[in-house]
Structure to design on (430 residues):
C-alpha cells in the first residue's frame, strides 16, 4: 500500500483510547477486560483501513476483533470507521506483527486473519511474508490450542507458498477455495483491496488452517 | 473417458507379455526382475492411452514406469505406443487401483502419478476419488518410506478436495502450482487430456506430496 504521511495520526489515535489501544502490553493475558466480556478474540494482522474487521464486527457481535496494523497513518482511517459505526467489539492496535507475543499471551486469541498480505515476491524476502514459519510460530504462541488462521489473497505465488509453508509447519488444511467469489462460501466480508481487484477479474484464493494439538 | 468396446483388446495385450504384464501378483516384491534392473519404479494410476508415461520413459531412461489402467480397451492404445517406440522401461498393467496391494509390496514403488483423475464431483462419490484417504492408504502400503504422489488436474474442485485430503492424511505438501503452464516448472510431459484442455484455456493445477516417515 502506498502511504501518505499523516503526522497527526498518532495524536488522533491517542484521543480515542476506547478504540485504539495505547498500552497493549498491560493487557497481555487479560484482553477480556479491554472488551468487558469473555467473548473470543479474533485478530487481523495487517488490518489496513479496517473494512474487513468492521464488517466482521457488525456481522458477529459476540466475537471481539482487534485490528493489528503497523502504520498509524493507515490505521487512523480504520479509527474513523469505528467512531462512525460505534462498534464496541472492534479495537485497533498499531504494533509490529513481529512483536505480537509482547502483547498477547498463549490462548488470548482464537483466530488470526490474514487478508491480502504483502506477497514479498522475491525469494530473499520470503522471511517477511506473514505466512513464513517464524510468523506461524508467533501466531501459535498467542492462539488457543486448535486455533486457526484464515487467509485470503489474490496473489497466486503467495498462496502457493503459503500452502506449502502451512503444510511444512504441520498445520491442518481445513478449507481451501481457489476461486472464492465463485464458490458457495457464505458471509464473505470483502476488504477494500478485494473489492477493487475482484472487480478487475482477479481470482481470490482462501484457506483455513488449524494448529493441531498433538504437534 | 468415453469407452469404445474393443473385444480384441484382452487378446492383444496377451500377445505382448514383455510390455503388458499378465500375472502381476507373481512379481510382488520383485518387480526389478520384470525390468531386469534395480532402477526405481514409478507408477501412474489411471494411465489411459499412456502418452504421459511414454514421454516420461523416454525422458528418464533410468526410471522404470508402470501404467495402471482398469480398462483394457483403453490401455491397448498405450500398448500400441510402446510397441512403436520400443521403450524398455514402460510396462502396462490392467488392474483395479483398489487392488494394488495384491500386486505390489511395501517399497516396490518410489512414486505414484495421478493425472487428470476422474473428479467424481458428487459428495456421495468422494470415496471413488483417487485422492480419497483409502487410496492414500493403498499407495502408502506399496511406496517406499518418504515416497511421493505427483498429481495434476484441471478440475478445481478435485484439486481443492485433494489438498485437504492430503493434509488430513498427514502428507507434506512439497510443491504446488495453481497454473502449471504459466509456471517455471521444467520438463512437464503433457497427457492427451492436458494437451486438449490447456489449449482451450483451462488452468492446470499440480502438486507433489510426500509421505512422512514419522507418521
Amino acid at each position: 500500500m502506498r502511504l501518505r504521511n499523516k503526522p497527526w495520526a498518532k495524536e488522533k489515535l491517542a484521543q480515542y483510547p476506547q478504540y485504539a489501544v495505547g498500552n497493549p502490553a498491560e493487557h497481555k493475558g487479560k484482553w477480556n477486560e479491554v472488551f468487558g466480556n469473555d467473548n473470543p478474540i479474533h485478530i487481523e494482522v495487517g488490518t489496513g483501513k479496517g473494512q474487513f474487521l468492521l464488517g466482521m464486527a457488525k456481522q458477529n457481535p459476540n466475537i471481539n476483533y482487534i485490528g493489528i496494523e503497523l502504520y498509524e497513518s493507515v490505521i487512523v482511517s480504520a479509527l474513523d470507521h469505528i467512531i462512525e459505526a460505534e462498534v464496541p467489539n472492534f479495537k485497533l492496535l498499531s504494533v509490529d506483527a513481529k512483536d505480537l507475543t509482547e502483547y498477547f499471551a498463549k490462548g488470548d486469541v482464537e483466530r488470526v486473519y490474514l487478508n491480502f498480505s504483502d506477497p514479498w515476491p522475491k525469494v530473499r524476502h520470503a522471511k517477511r511474508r506473514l505466512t513464513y514459519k517464524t510468523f506461524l510460530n508467533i501466531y501459535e504462541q498467542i492462539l488457543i490450542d486448535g486455533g486457526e488462521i484464515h487467509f485470503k489473497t489474490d496473489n497466486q505465488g503467495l498462496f502457493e507458498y503459503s500452502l506449502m509453508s502451512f503444510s511444512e509447519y504441520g498445520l491442518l488444511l481445513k478449507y481451501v477455495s481457489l476461486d472464492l467469489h465463485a464458490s458457495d462460501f457464505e458471509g464473505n466480508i470483502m476488504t477494500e483491496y478485494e473489492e477493487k481487484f475482484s472487480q478487475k477479474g482477479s481470482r481470490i484464493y482462501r484457506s483455513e488452517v488449524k494448529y493441531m494439538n498433538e504437534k
